[in-house]
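Teaching note: in complex prediction, the entire set of molecules is handled at once rather than each chain in isolation. The prompt given to students was simply: 'Predict the structure of this complex.' The entities are:
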Amino acid sequence: MSSHVELRPGAYADSVTLLQVSRTVAGLPGVAAAQVAMATPLNIEVLEGMGFAVPAEAGVNDLVVAVRLDDPAALDAVLAGVDRALDDSSRRPTGAAEVAPHRTTAAALRDAGDALVLVSVPGPSAVVEAMDAVEAGRDVMVFSDHVPVEHEVALKRAAEAAGVLVMGPDCGTAIVDGVGLGFANVVSPGPVGIVAASGTGCQQLLALLDHAGVGVTSALGVGGRDLTAEVGGLATREALRRLDADDRVELIVVVSKPPAPEVATAIEEYAAGLATPVELALLGPGRPDLTAAAERVLRRLSRALPDLSPADPSETSRRVGGELLRGLFVGGTLAGEARQIAAETLGVVGSALADLHGEGHGVVDFGDDAYTSGRAHPMIDPTLRLEHLARAAADPHTGVILLDVVLGHGAEPDPAALLATALAEVSQPVVACVVGTAQDPQDLDRQVRLLAEAGAEVHLSNAGATRRALEILGAGR
Amino acid sequence: MRVVTAGADLLADAVQAQAVDVTRVDWRPPLPGTEADLTAVALDPRRSEANARAGAAMLAVTAHLVDVGPASEVLGLQRGEFLHAGPPITWDRASGPLRGGLMAGAALEGLVDDPEDAVALFESGDTVSLEPCHHRGTVGPMAGVVTPSMWMFVLEDRATGRRTHCSLNEGLGKVLRYGAYSPDVLARLRWMGDVLGPALRTAVRATVDDTGPVDVTGILTQMLQMGDEAHNRNRAGTLMLLRDLAPALASSGIDAGDVAEVLRFVGGNDHFFLNLAMPACKLALDAARDVPGSTMVVAMARNGTDFGIQVSGTGDEWFTGPAQVAEGLYLGDYGPDDANPDIGDSAITETAGLGGFAMATAPAIVRLVGGSVPDALATTRRMHEITLTENPRWSVPVLEFQGTPTGIDVTRVCRTGILPQINTGMAGRLAGVGQVGAGLVTPPAAIFPQALVRLAELSTQAQHA
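The expected output is the structure of the full assembly:
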């Protein structure tokens, strides 16, 4: 075994590309482990966790190439493989005219004046690209996180003046005129329009409506902070206005993380003045969960929510070992919902990574800003969650493991397959919620089957899954 | 529906998989350390409108040649006052070609008998002063030295009456602006003062009276279609100028031998029109100056030591860094060791969207600067990535008559790391040598983040005022 770590200052590739490069390199002959990543503090921690010594001078603009070799003689070939993988990832098809692609959103919009803009560059640069869209009078979805709230406010004020919709920052999901952006589920067109200050909340709603056979015209994400006091619902108002003006929309649903009370009131007043009826699904303590909200929407449309619990609740051979709930989530709102429901029964439920391995109950959102700096979102890169899943499974105090599996465009192509391998090593009961629609590229039925075969009890409602996990935990006591 | 994506390819792929037309931005991190300032400037509520205003003001200018006269008369330049190219500099930091030009200028003005004697004069600094051309409404090619007795073109924006100036072009090789000061250089300058200048004045004034002033902006439009980029190639422009002035020159009553000599000199100097292109560009860019919040570059200039830029939103402040040595082809036996770092106000042409920015239109010079035709097209297209607008008047046939990229944006340079491409001549490193080659050069990257820092400060001040 030999290790090789080198810094490449000034080299850059986005985290998703580097994930693919790392995987390619890890698969080269003679390689025991490999990680190619930007030297962010989080990635350095991961590298050190893998046993690599990262030079102290590594900065966030440096690319780290770290490989561990079974055969030291393979080094040259492996480094050549790294270069090849980086080259392949950056090579884009060009037409016969060999016109270089544009380097800024502003320049691209000169050629594509009517376009919608999707920004997913690193947070510190996101506002700059988004402002290009606002200036050009184009709607923009800002997928990027790590944007300070004061910048969000300034961006949205500029958008308000320009009559432009800014979806985000940190907007994971949107469907505009049937086109999914970011992590979007594939839905049929239908009478519902959604305004979402919650990405996976929106996805849960899309999935539940789809299970009931109800389609969606547009789902406009507004970013998780839009209904906070600082932002004041600037984008929510614009999104409501758009959906109200859309003849195809018969019912508007607003789904949001717990809003600031005064903003919630203001939005309620604004909604009351619209021609289209608006259903508010504002989450928070004492308020209905997402599944209950979906049921309410369906009732207004005179539809019923189908049974979402597993056909065959697993008479699990798995024994409850410990007494603690361990929730490992990729969806922020889904984690929040699970935490809130669990807290009603369990009291305190922690949300920090330390809580996942401590002496209390813990439900962690791996999509939180703290875990995505310089890394792809866990719906794309499952590494971090799988690592902590193994740790939680090895902990004798773990009583039940609760997971979400989110499908749709943009997400990992086969998340259940990766989880299934990991679940083979888990002895505790596992309850998983699959959030997805029948048309999602991952094949909902197959995802459910793979997880069930790996011994997980699979639900389609996150609230239902959480309650079931609590039941198992209670029964084991 | 069409989607422009900036960022992760995976998300672009997911949109494309839905049969949507996707345009991918080839986004890369901005110049190191600029993120916070870029965001501050992007969110400056004045910026968008300020840039639109600066761009429109620049494009609205039409430059006309209205007069020719000595610098003492048209600039009020006094004996002992010397103008030079680029940002402010002192004799002790001046490069070889700038020193050579100043020495020739001192001899021309009779301040010294032998140019070599001027070294002591400039070292003492008692009776002489140096000032950038730009500070006096003037642009100077290469060393850009202007002295009171040199004759100047006077250009005017008829709408506003604003004026800019430039000296008369001396030709190539051993000339003052490249730092040469031998007796033949001085003899040519004296002939230019005694014969060429007065003849041009007579011809220009008569033309103004007869058919109106020569429309320099209009000639620029035409010459771009004829294969000139108006910095390193001005052949068509020079001949069009001659066409406009020749009738008045012929009927001026000036000695026929002198007229012939003037026609021969101008017609034989393919760069003669450069000294009209430059002040025309400055006239347009001056109209864009001093717009609060604008991030547009209004001047790029070099003094042979420093490369400086001025930006509309930051007033008369210069942002400077070390000038680079151009890459290109050398005359005769000269090589890279003989070349001085970049010098001259002529990058005003690039600042206005000509020269390197119009490379695509000038295939003839592509080879001179060591490139291929596709490289030239790519250069012009690349400059569109860092400019605010394009000039519909200056269009490029081979690019489907797209206007040349115009109005360099400090923020886009910092965002993309793409530096303005400048076509330039190369002066010899030592005073007295003259021209050694021609090539391509870029500004030092660091001056753009410097300007950005100032723009961000001013933006913050404006929002708290």
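Point out the following to students. The longest helix of chain A spans residues 75-90. Residues 93-97 of chain A have pLDDT under 50 and may be disordered.
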